[in-house]
Amino acid sequence: MNTLKFFEVSALTRRKQKAQWEYVIHWATHPDKGSTFDRLTFLLRLLPKQLLFFLLVNCLGYDGVICYDGNLFIGHVFFQKHRRHWGIFSVFVWESHRGQDYAKRMIAECLRRAHGNTHIERVYIGNGGNPAIQHIAELAKGNQLGLPFAAKAGEKKGEAILLRDAPSRASRWMLLSRIQRI
Protein backbone atom coordinates (compact mmCIF):
# COMPACT_ATOMS: atom_id res chain seq x y z
CA MET A 1 0.00 0.00 0.00
CA ASN A 2 1.15 3.49 -0.78
CA THR A 3 0.93 6.24 1.75
CA LEU A 4 -2.50 7.70 2.21
CA LYS A 5 -3.11 11.23 1.01
CA PHE A 6 -5.91 13.29 2.56
CA PHE A 7 -7.66 16.37 1.22
CA GLU A 8 -9.43 18.42 3.87
CA VAL A 9 -12.85 19.53 2.57
CA SER A 10 -12.66 22.99 4.16
CA ALA A 11 -9.31 23.63 2.43
CA LEU A 12 -10.49 22.69 -1.08
CA THR A 13 -10.58 25.32 -3.78
CA ARG A 14 -12.55 24.95 -6.96
CA ARG A 15 -9.54 25.85 -9.09
CA LYS A 16 -6.75 23.85 -7.43
CA GLN A 17 -8.66 20.69 -6.42
CA LYS A 18 -11.49 20.72 -8.92
CA ALA A 19 -12.14 16.96 -8.90
CA GLN A 20 -12.28 16.81 -5.09
CA TRP A 21 -14.41 19.98 -4.89
CA GLU A 22 -16.91 18.54 -7.39
CA TYR A 23 -16.93 15.25 -5.49
CA VAL A 24 -18.02 17.07 -2.31
CA ILE A 25 -20.71 18.99 -4.23
CA HIS A 26 -21.99 15.73 -5.72
CA TRP A 27 -22.35 14.16 -2.25
CA ALA A 28 -23.94 17.33 -0.87
CA THR A 29 -26.53 17.39 -3.65
CA HIS A 30 -27.21 13.62 -3.59
CA PRO A 31 -27.66 12.71 0.10
CA ASP A 32 -29.18 9.47 1.32
CA LYS A 33 -32.95 9.83 1.00
CA GLY A 34 -34.59 10.49 4.34
CA SER A 35 -31.30 11.15 6.13
CA THR A 36 -30.91 14.03 8.57
CA PHE A 37 -28.56 15.74 6.09
CA ASP A 38 -31.22 15.35 3.36
CA ARG A 39 -33.85 17.02 5.53
CA LEU A 40 -31.61 19.81 6.82
CA THR A 41 -30.13 20.81 3.47
CA PHE A 42 -33.12 20.39 1.14
CA LEU A 43 -33.52 24.08 0.29
CA LEU A 44 -29.77 24.76 0.25
CA ARG A 45 -29.33 22.27 -2.58
CA LEU A 46 -31.30 24.63 -4.84
CA LEU A 47 -28.53 27.26 -4.59
CA PRO A 48 -25.64 27.66 -7.04
CA LYS A 49 -22.84 25.18 -6.30
CA GLN A 50 -20.26 27.73 -5.15
CA LEU A 51 -22.69 29.32 -2.71
CA LEU A 52 -23.81 25.88 -1.50
CA PHE A 53 -20.19 24.86 -0.81
CA PHE A 54 -19.52 28.14 1.03
CA LEU A 55 -22.63 27.84 3.22
CA LEU A 56 -22.07 24.17 4.08
CA VAL A 57 -18.41 24.59 4.99
CA ASN A 58 -18.11 28.12 6.34
CA CYS A 59 -21.54 28.68 7.91
CA LEU A 60 -22.87 25.26 8.86
CA GLY A 61 -19.56 23.64 9.83
CA TYR A 62 -19.56 20.67 7.47
CA ASP A 63 -16.07 19.32 6.79
CA GLY A 64 -14.24 16.07 6.25
CA VAL A 65 -11.42 14.31 4.49
CA ILE A 66 -11.21 12.73 1.06
CA CYS A 67 -8.71 9.88 0.90
CA TYR A 68 -6.40 8.62 -1.84
CA ASP A 69 -3.91 5.78 -1.74
CA GLY A 70 -1.29 7.13 -4.10
CA ASN A 71 -3.38 8.34 -7.05
CA LEU A 72 -6.18 5.86 -6.36
CA PHE A 73 -9.40 7.32 -4.93
CA ILE A 74 -10.44 5.44 -1.78
CA GLY A 75 -13.33 7.31 -0.11
CA HIS A 76 -14.29 9.97 2.39
CA VAL A 77 -15.28 10.77 5.96
CA PHE A 78 -17.62 13.73 6.39
CA PHE A 79 -18.43 15.34 9.71
CA GLN A 80 -20.07 18.44 11.11
CA LYS A 81 -18.23 20.70 13.49
CA HIS A 82 -20.10 21.76 16.58
CA ARG A 83 -18.94 23.96 19.42
CA ARG A 84 -17.09 21.29 21.44
CA HIS A 85 -17.42 18.17 19.29
CA TRP A 86 -17.44 16.75 15.77
CA GLY A 87 -20.17 14.47 14.50
CA ILE A 88 -19.05 12.00 11.81
CA PHE A 89 -22.12 11.30 9.71
CA SER A 90 -20.80 9.82 6.46
CA VAL A 91 -18.08 7.23 5.89
CA PHE A 92 -17.65 5.88 2.37
CA VAL A 93 -15.06 3.49 0.93
CA TRP A 94 -15.15 2.58 -2.75
CA GLU A 95 -16.51 -0.97 -3.00
CA SER A 96 -13.34 -2.47 -4.50
CA HIS A 97 -11.33 -1.23 -1.48
CA ARG A 98 -13.61 -2.38 1.32
CA GLY A 99 -12.26 -4.82 3.89
CA GLN A 100 -8.76 -3.29 3.72
CA ASP A 101 -8.98 -1.07 6.86
CA TYR A 102 -9.36 2.15 4.87
CA ALA A 103 -12.43 3.27 6.85
CA LYS A 104 -10.54 2.66 10.08
CA ARG A 105 -7.54 4.67 8.87
CA MET A 106 -9.73 7.53 7.60
CA ILE A 107 -11.60 7.77 10.89
CA ALA A 108 -8.27 7.63 12.75
CA GLU A 109 -7.11 10.59 10.62
CA CYS A 110 -10.25 12.54 11.59
CA LEU A 111 -9.61 11.75 15.26
CA ARG A 112 -6.01 13.00 14.91
CA ARG A 113 -7.28 16.24 13.40
CA ALA A 114 -9.93 16.61 16.12
CA HIS A 115 -7.31 16.05 18.80
CA GLY A 116 -5.20 18.78 17.20
CA ASN A 117 -8.04 21.24 17.83
CA THR A 118 -7.79 21.70 21.58
CA HIS A 119 -11.36 22.97 21.90
CA ILE A 120 -12.77 19.68 20.55
CA GLU A 121 -13.52 17.36 23.47
CA ARG A 122 -15.27 14.48 21.75
CA VAL A 123 -16.12 12.92 18.41
CA TYR A 124 -19.35 11.10 17.68
CA ILE A 125 -18.61 8.32 15.21
CA GLY A 126 -21.83 7.53 13.39
CA ASN A 127 -25.29 7.41 14.85
CA GLY A 128 -25.21 3.77 15.86
CA GLY A 129 -26.77 2.39 12.69
CA ASN A 130 -23.82 0.77 10.93
CA PRO A 131 -22.12 -2.17 12.70
CA ALA A 132 -18.79 -1.68 10.88
CA ILE A 133 -18.61 1.98 11.91
CA GLN A 134 -19.59 1.14 15.48
CA HIS A 135 -16.80 -1.45 15.54
CA ILE A 136 -14.33 1.29 14.56
CA ALA A 137 -15.80 3.54 17.27
CA GLU A 138 -15.19 0.76 19.81
CA LEU A 139 -11.60 0.40 18.58
CA ALA A 140 -11.10 4.17 19.02
CA LYS A 141 -12.45 4.08 22.57
CA GLY A 142 -10.26 1.06 23.34
CA ASN A 143 -7.15 2.87 22.03
CA GLN A 144 -6.70 0.26 19.29
CA LEU A 145 -6.36 2.57 16.27
CA GLY A 146 -2.67 3.31 16.80
CA LEU A 147 -3.32 6.93 17.75
CA PRO A 148 -0.68 8.88 19.70
CA PHE A 149 -3.31 9.82 22.30
CA ALA A 150 -6.02 8.02 24.23
CA ALA A 151 -9.80 8.16 23.90
CA LYS A 152 -12.43 6.78 26.22
CA ALA A 153 -16.05 5.83 25.79
CA GLY A 154 -18.68 8.45 26.38
CA GLU A 155 -22.25 7.97 27.52
CA LYS A 156 -23.74 7.86 24.01
CA LYS A 157 -23.24 5.19 21.37
CA GLY A 158 -20.29 6.03 19.11
CA GLU A 159 -19.02 8.78 21.42
CA ALA A 160 -15.23 8.94 21.79
CA ILE A 161 -13.91 11.41 24.36
CA LEU A 162 -10.46 12.69 23.42
CA LEU A 163 -8.02 12.60 26.30
CA ARG A 164 -5.22 15.14 26.54
CA ASP A 165 -2.39 15.48 28.99
CA ALA A 166 -2.92 18.23 31.52
CA PRO A 167 -0.61 21.17 30.88
CA SER A 168 2.48 21.16 33.03
CA ARG A 169 3.06 23.86 35.59
CA ALA A 170 5.85 25.35 33.45
CA SER A 171 3.68 25.50 30.31
CA ARG A 172 0.80 27.11 32.26
CA TRP A 173 3.22 29.71 33.66
CA MET A 174 4.61 30.44 30.18
CA LEU A 175 1.11 30.84 28.75
CA LEU A 176 0.08 33.18 31.57
CA SER A 177 3.21 35.30 31.13
CA ARG A 178 2.46 35.66 27.40
CA ILE A 179 -1.15 36.67 28.12
CA GLN A 180 0.03 39.30 30.60
CA ARG A 181 2.23 40.86 27.90
CA ILE A 182 -0.77 41.32 25.66
Structural notes for this entry:
This protein is an alpha+beta fold and 182 residues long. Helix content is 37%, strand content 24%. It has six helices and seven strands; from the N terminus they run βαααβββαβαββα. It has a seven-stranded mixed beta sheet.
Instruction: Characterize the biggest β-sheet.
Output: 7 strands, mixed
What is the third-level CATH name, the topology? Aminopeptidase
The quaternary organization reads as: single chain
- What would you report as the Rg, rounded to the nearest angstrom? 18 Å
Overall geometry comes to globular
Task: Tell me the layout of helices and strands.
Layout: E1 4-8, H1 18-29, H2 36-40, H3 49-59, E2 62-69, E3 72-81, E4 85-93, H4 102-116, E5 122-125, H5 131-141, E6 151-153, E7 159-162, H6 169-181
Parallel strand pairs: 4-5
Antiparallel strand pairs: 1-2, 2-3, 3-4, 5-7, 6-7
Q: What's a quick, concise take on this entry?
A:
Helices cover 37% and strands 24% of the residues. It has six helices and seven strands. The mean pLDDT is 89.
Q: Which structural traits does this protein have?
A:
182 residues, 24% strand, Aminopeptidase, 6 helices, 7-stranded mixed sheet
